[in-house]
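Study this protein:
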Amino acid sequence: MKIIAISASPKGKASNTLKLLEAAADGAKEAGADVEIVDVTKLKVNFCRGDSSCYRTGSCFQDDDYADLKEKIVAADGIVLSAPNYIDNVPAQLKVVLDRSANFIHEQLLDGKYGFTIVTSGSPNYEMVLDMMDNFIAKSGGLRTGRLGLAMAHGPDAAVAAGKKAREMGKDLAQAIKEKRAYPEQVSEHKKWKDQFAVTVKFNKENWKHNYDLWVSKGWIKV
């Protein structure tokens, strides 16, 4: 059972976000998971060029660290996305990764995987950042087991409580993977989205050959 835990804070070891992510990783390890923490701020990931080559071929032509990161995520059973709140959004380093990951959505590359999200913020205004990361997991076909936000303005006691919760969420994520936990409402939303997006894939079948062929092979498009 493999979990990839992504840190998007440029503060390194001084990061409050990383502390929560490490607590989550410890909880998952206690439950039997193999956890790898990846700091995306230390990777070289170029901007998306928007040329749709990944839709045509299944991979990006750019030579950087993204391909290795994608491989790790696809090989994992679970994912934790963590980030500080940067002006009501994720930091640029994670946004670039998400932009390059459009094929996760187009090809449902988190299908059968589980994940949750962590955000730290100076103020309590972090919900939209959690929403953004949750949306990526959901639109990529993943099942969400929870979310955690910490406002540093709430003081040290809140940070301690968040650390404990992060550890429990890590354990719960590992357990969800083990038991192949069902989330009928989320599965229903996935099906609804796929039914809608199938129209777009069929319309673009000449330009999105890899996407189209995969949807046909999965039975998401009937020919």
Observations:
- The chain has one domain: 2-181.
- Residues 156-179 form the longest helix (24 residues).
- The beta strands are 2-7, 34-39, 78-84, 114-121, 143-151.
- Residues 2-181 form a domain with the Rossmann fold fold (CATH 3.40.50.360).
